[in-house]
Amino acid sequence: MALKVYREYRGTFELVGEFERADPVNETFAYDEGYLERDDAAALSASLPLRHEPYASNEFSAFFSGMLPEGPVRHELSMRFQIPQSDYLSMLERLGDECVGALRFLGDEKSSYDPGYRPLQDEDFEALSKAEVFEIANDMQDSRLSLAGAQSKPGWFLPRGKDAKKAGSGDWMLPLGSAPSTHIVKIASTKHPDLPFNELICMTAASAAGLEIARSEASDTIPGAFFSERYDRIWSNEPPSMSGFDVPLRLHQEDFCQAVGWPSYMKYETRPDSCYMALCGRLIREQSSNVIADTQMFARQVMVDYALGNCDSHLKNHSFLYSPSWREKRLAPAYDIVCTTIMGYDHNLGIDIGDHRVIDGVTPEDFEFMSQDLHLPLKMIKNIAAEVAEEVSAQLAELASATGDLGRVALKIQTDSVERMRVLEQFSA
Q1: Quick check: 217 and 400 in contact, CB under 8 A?
Q2: Beta-strand relationship, 12-21 and 27-31
Q3: Which tens digit of pLDDT belongs to each residue from 212-259?
Q4: Strand 145-146 to 98-99 pairing
Q5: Which domain holds residue 344?
Q6: Hey, which bits of 167-244 come out as E strands?
Q7: Does residue 2 sit within a domain?
Q8: Which pTM does this prediction carry?
Q9: N or C: which end of the chain has fewer CB within 10 A?
Q10: Nearest CA-CA partner of 406 in 261, 267, 198
Q11: Does residue 311 lie within any of the structural domains?
Q12: How confident is the model at residue 128 (pLDDT cuts 50, 70, 90)?
């Protein structure tokens, strides 16, 4: 296998390193010697620091495998490509033109994929809502796009200046080859018809509570469609063009699982002797370019997730976002915030709070442990809790007064959150 890794740096792709596979078992990844000599060379991850010695597969697999989708979409792609789900390098060879962050993977098939965009039509949205996994796999295969995570979500392109909320199906485009996407799209399915409203409500409440979030909107023109603007894409003053469109630049990112070198199946805290909260605090202290601000923001996100009943906040839902120069890292905006407690899932938290894994068992005393785990003053933690409880409660009350599905779902979340708000208020008193 000849598979090379490139990074987008200030609008151009630069060779970073290459994989060598003597056989399916013996694989290595090595940074390119020319790249290592550059003054602006940067590691791809905290788990893969710059070095001349090649990395063995047990050292790099967590980072690179973590760039692929999980669950049913990964299974569907595996069946199409006729390769095992565990063969993540072969998958990246087929899907690695457009990934989370700023990396691109090129193998022997690179010449057959030219960058560009294909307009999407009403039937594309209809097909996606009826056969979600199959159609998302189609999009990923056609666009050579890989987005990490268990949730089904293709990446699409919206020309600069158009409003995602008001854009019709004819405005959206499917990126092809190395063409960048601008938005993550989620379409309501028959299994979870309220999901777009749920996420819109939760993201709106999270923003009101002071959390930096990925800009998200429910479509006014496409029923059941929900769009999140990609925060790992930025517009420059003089953007490059592709197929007649201005296109954004890519920013690199790594999630917390990748940063510690853990595979995706370890994203949930399950062991009684572990402490993911302390792990996250240590990661931020070691990696962030603004430790105090990012630690406070992480504490705020934990409390927002708790208040809203988001039990699916795990290590892959927290990330570092790199600066355009690759010299600085900051906590990435929050994403994928939904009230899972009204969706029929179990109530186990992705990251334990104090001594409790089940969200319904969390007590005011459990939040005191956050002060120790995150190395923040207890008074500061209490102040954050008070702000979160006040602002989330107020936002849910406002949204619950709306008419239609939005108000109906907001009322469900508001009712579900009453006891958790009481816990936060008791802790902050």
Answers
A1: no
A2: antiparallel
A3: 998 888 888 887 788 899 999 999 988 888 888 999 999 999 999 999
A4: parallel
A5: 251-428
A6: 173-176, 183-187, 216-218, 225-229, 233-234, 241-242
A7: no
A8: 0.91
A9: C
A10: 198
A11: yes
A12: low
